[in-house]
Write a structure and sequence with these properties.
Number of strands: 4
Helix content: 55-70%
Number of helices: 23
Radius of gyration: 28 Å
Largest sheet: 4 strands, antiparallel
Order of helices and strands: HHEEEEHHHHHHHHHHHHHHHHHHHHH
Structural class: mainly alpha
């Protein structure tokens, strides 16, 4: 099947060899000038914000020493693993002993016997012991915090662009209380899977005008391996993102509604949609602007195409991306085609309140409606795939039918979103504890692992050498039921880790080092195909496909992607999130 797909690729007729030379007079390109002007303005804001933030911080430090106020690192608390000098004394009547604890000590949030609230300067605990806390240091004012509170609105706004503040926030490995730590690992590893699949696509086989490899046909035996099916199945990583988004949305919205002292208002509904749009759109539009307006001037060479259509289309259909309908409108001339996922995610987010309302008011009805949404997605996906009978390797020959009518449309991908919503509903309703019957835990892990491996490697029966081509029914069944089944496997993984049944798996996925990498996942998803194309189109020699070169290429793409993502996130994403907090949540909880 792979050899047939490769044979259908259009072979260019070479009449002459030359190095493509494009007009690089940027002064005649109004779109490029506009893009540079916008970037220059943002750069100026970043420069001013960073300088002002550093100046303000240095002044606060000087004032601390002038007023005799010691920096936070010197007061009684755990800072960088050092125990403070102030203490809390526990007087235990039974044995008349005292235990010294740090002044900042708090019982573990998940502990079975938390300490009560401080009353009259001491804690009372169950055995009659008394905890007396030294509060001398707590009386000293925190000058830096006072200055922050006194800072003007303009000062707060400009600091949103400060790299001095944004980069440490992004790279911080501290998790917030009550978070589900395993999600960070799942999110990052899913992105690495996406990058792995795209390593074989962008720049290697996606070039229309010429080939960038000297042994493209050697792909055939590589793709026929059993191990390569893990690359082919990379599309399941996107389904993982759908499960994560739906789960977090459902769980957090239901919990947040419980905590509200008043009913939801129209303004709450407006902010529900605005927050999502503001969270995703600014960095998204800025990346589109840079890619579409400046791609002609950031590279050259024998493989540099006269037109990169993924960028060129953005000049005319950018509005479909802005409205998050680029998977439904102008699908044959998509701008940054890989952003179809963002359109689906936003469309699912828009309809989710219909199900969330019922989940909160009438839980049974809400669960039934979400289950019906899952069944609808399965049914439509089966129908459409049965008609088209396509996959990734037929997209060159079916005029994009599989891509436009099955793979990227919301009604065929909504199944995993519904699974994520059901998971959020279950975790919201259920007390956080392991299953009583350990046998069920073992069965859950065995079944989910077996199903996941089957979904990834079952395509080997068709893709191997002399494999049997699947029928319409087989392919429709795999497309319709495979994605929700993968979603349930991910749902079990999250459920088990959340309820302390994850063991070693949870320990690995909850590693703090995944937290900053997880924060950069959105920016990395946006820019990784651009990084790949810029590398390949700028080469001066043909690429030779073999395992070692691909491995080196993959890790290179991954590292460069995250470096670029850090720059984009610190420059575009973090400032907009800070601006939202100041402008639209002033007076609310900080």
């Amino acid at each position: 099947m792979f050899s047939d797909a490769l044979q259908k690729l259009p072979l260019p007729e070479v009449e002459e060899a030359y190095c493509y030379e494009q007009d690089t007079d940027i002064t005649a390109d109004s779109s490029a000038i506009a893009a540079i002007s916008v970037l220059a303005a943002i750069g100026m804001l970043i420069l001013v914000g960073t300088v002002y933030d550093i100046y303000k911080s240095s002044r606060a430090t000087e004032d601390n020493y002038k007023t005799g106020t010691r920096p936070r690192e010197e007061t009684g608390s755990y800072i960088n693993g050092a125990l403070s000098d102030s203490s809390v004394k526990i007087n235990v009547p039974e044995n008349k002993t005292e235990i010294s604890l740090p002044s900042g000590y708090m019982p573990h949030k998940e502990g079975g016997c938390p300490l009560p609230t401080v009353s009259n300067g001491y804690h009372e605990i169950s055995n009659g012991a008394r905890i007396t806390q030294n509060t001398d240091n707590q009386q000293q004012p925190d000058t830096r915090q006072e200055k922050k509170r006194k800072d003007s609105l303009a000062g707060k706004l400009i600091v949103c662009f400060s790299l001095y503040t944004n980069i440490p926030k992004i790279l911080s490995a501290k998790s917030t209380s009550g978070s589900i730590s395993c999600i960070h690992g799942i999110r990052f590893l899913s992105l690495t899977w996406v990058v792995l699949g795209h390593t074989y696509n962008y720049g290697i086989v996606s070039q229309d005008e010429t080939f960038t490899t000297d042994n493209l046909l050697d792909f055939v035996p590589i793709m026929q391996r059993l191990t390569f099916q893990g690359v082919v199945a990379g599309g399941f990583a996107v389904d993982t993102f759908f499960v994560l988004s739906a789960f977090l949305l459902t769980w957090l919205q239901l919990k947040g509604t419980d905590k509200k002292k008043k009913k939801c208002t129209v303004s709450d509904g407006i902010m529900y949609y605005f927050h999502r749009f503001w969270r995703l759109t600014p960095i998204y539009m800025l990346v589109i602007m840079m890619f579409s307006c400046l791609y002609r001037y950031i590279g050259s060479g024998p493989f540099w195409p006269s037109t990169i259509w993924a960028a060129e289309h953005c000049k005319t259909v950018w509005w479909t991306n802005l409205l998050y309908i680029n998977n439904l409108v102008e699908t044959h001339s998509q701008c940054m085609g890989w952003t179809w996922y963002l359109a689906n995610d936003m469309q699912f987010y828009v309809i989710s309140p219909l199900f969330l309302i019922f989940m909160y008011i009438m839980p049974v009805i809400g669960a039934i409606l979400t289950s019906l949404l899952l069944c609808m997605g399965i049914g439509i996906a089966f129908w459409k795939e049965y008609e088209i009978n396509g996959n990734f390797f037929t997209m060159k020959s079916d005029d994009g039918a599989f891509w436009n009518e099955v793979y990227t449309v919301p009604w065929c991908r909504v199944g995993c979103w519904a699974v994520g919503m059901l998971l959020g509903f279950v975790i919201y309703k259920r007390e956080r504890k392991p299953l009583r019957n350990k046998s069920l835990t073992y069965i859950g892990w065995l079944v989910s692992t077996a199903v996941a491996l089957s979904l990834v490697y079952s395509t080997y029966s068709e893709n191997k050498e002399d494999g049997t081509e699947w029928t319409n029914v087989q392919r429709a069944f795999y497309e319709a039921f495979g994605r929700p089944a993968w979603g349930f496997c991910i749902a079990w993984l999250i459920f088990a880790c959340y309820n302390n049944m994850g063991g070693l798996v949870n320990s690995i996925l909850s590693w703090n080092g995944f937290i900053p990498l997880s924060r950069l996942t959105y920016a990395a998803y946006l820019v990784h195909p651009i990084c790949m194309m810029m590398y390949f189109f700028s080469r001066r020699t043909l690429f030779h496909v073999n395992d070692y070169n691909i491995i080196y290429l993959y890790f290179g793409h991954l590292c460069v992607t995250y470096m670029v993502a850090l720059v984009c996130s610190a420059s575009f994403e973090a400032p907009t999130m800070g601006l939202e907090k100041i402008l639209f949540r002033r007076g609310g909880r900080r």
